[in-house]
Amino acid sequence: MPSISAKVPLSRIFRGRAAECRTMAELFRSEKTREHLLKVVADYESMADQEATFELEEHTTPQEAVTSILAHA
Description:
The chain is mainly α. It contains three helices and no strands. It starts with 9 loop residues before the first helix and ends with a helix. 8% of the residues are buried.
């Protein structure tokens, strides 16, 4: 199993997991299962948004924040 680098922002990891869950939701026939997975997607997106806010607060200048965002895009 590949290790996750400490340099990868958690917000990016959470958005990736949300995308995986969204893809899985499309594969299920059960509406209940799809709804459950889409709730998980919403939770991951919420965590990603919150973590992105924390990541931006870690930078001391707006330029550092922009540089970091572009580096991880």
